Amino acid sequence: MPKHWISLLLLIALTVLFLVFWESPPALLTGAKETSKPEFPAAYMINSHSQHFDKTGHLDYEIKAAKVVHYQATPGRQQDSDHADITSPEITLHTQGRKPWHLRAKTGRSNSDGSQIILTDDVQGWQEDDDGQRNELNTDELVIHTKRNYVETDKAVIINNSGHVIKAIGLEADLNKETLRLKQRVRGVHEFEQ
Amino acid sequence: LPEDARQPIYVDADQAEVDKNKGITIYEGNVIINQGSMKILADKVTIFNQAKKVSRIVAKGKKGQAQYQQQPDAEKDLVIAKADTIEYLVGKETLHLLDNAYLLQDGATMKGHRIDYDVRASMATATGQGNKGDNKPNSRIQVVIPAKQLNREKQ
């Protein structure tokens, strides 16, 4: 077969290959599972109050909200991209043997299985001690891991711990163990024993 | 200053950890504490709360020693102290300087293994390390009183 026939065939093959790659969706190439983004709400609730229990039947957490709009990409099948947008969320995290923590904000978003709720816009948290004193937390954004009673933010935060006020950038708090870690630029003001 | 002890305690640091159960707050990284004219500089400071009020402060140096300074009175010079660990009992206004302790007060200096300083009475007590008659370093205390002050005491 003369040489120029071979090079012609080669050229045609390359062109076809190029066109195939050009047209095929990225997922074919990258192997990534394509998840379509939910565009329309699957359901919504007005003035809702939901209670969530752990495996042993203990009340884990509660959510009250003025409005919850639930988005589901494929009705009937849960996907990672599913979520719920919450207006005026009020969350109560119950920690066994201790007073509950109350958290509220203007807006919030829950992931598909409710294991993570992100509160945004004027986030306030408080817990009342046995002697009536309050521990408070204020920030612009707070990620709540509901299954672990663990909250965190990388935003500016103010903690008022029975009269000791501490400001910082970034926080991680284990509400079960009642320990907090403040990540950067910490400023504390402490009252003292008279 | 006399009114220092009634002032709130201000703390600046890189990070902090609060353990509500134990009633402690641990500050770490370039820690600066101010209470009126009193100032403490350290790498790590633990604040102990009792009945939710600060009762004790323990400051430790890592890269260097923990440092303390305070103005006892408007007319007096700054009192300056250094040690590997400085413990400040807030209510009793007492300072314990532990390990490689140094105190400068009215021009006189004192060195020893441990120095206890009563802030209110401006009184310091130094102790060496080990038994009597030891000649190990740090086992004895050193006090240096400047001549000027000696002459003044003689008159």
| CATH 2nd-level architecture of the largest domain in chain A | Sandwich
DSSP E strands of chain B, number: 12
Class of secondary structure makeup of chain B = mainly beta
Mean pLDDT of chain A: 86
Name the largest protein-protein interface in this structure: A-B, 27 and 29 residues
Tell me the strand percentage band of chain B: over 45%
In what range is the share of β-strand residues of chain A? over 45%
Residues in helix, % of chain A: 10-25%
Query: Order of strands across the biggest sheet of chain A?
Result: 2-3-6-7-5-4
Amino-to-carboxy terminus distance of chain A = 103 Å
Keywords (chain A): Cell inner membrane, Cell membrane, Membrane, Transmembrane, Transmembrane helix
GO biological process, one term (chain A): Gram-negative-bacterium-type cell outer membrane assembly
Family (chain A): Belongs to the LptC family.
Protein name (chain A): Lipopolysaccharide export system protein LptC
General description of the model:
The complex is a heterodimer of chains A (194) and B (155). Chain A is mainly beta. Chain A folds into 2 domains: 33 residues; 149 residues, Sandwich (lipopolysaccharide transport protein A fold). Chain A contains 2 helices and 11 strands, in the order ααβββββββββββ. In chain A, strands 2-3-6-7-5-4 form a 6-stranded antiparallel barrel. In chain A, strand 6 and strand 7 form a beta hairpin. The radius of gyration of chain A is 26 Å and the shape is elongated. The mean pLDDT of chain A is 86. Chain B has 155 residues and is mainly beta. Chain B has a 6-stranded antiparallel β-barrel with strand order 4-5-8-9-7-6. Chain B is globular, with a radius of gyration of 17 Å. In chain B, 29% of the residues are buried. The mean pLDDT of chain B is 85. Chains A and B meet through strand 10 and strand 11 of A and strand 1, strand 2, strand 3, strand 4 and strand 5 of B.
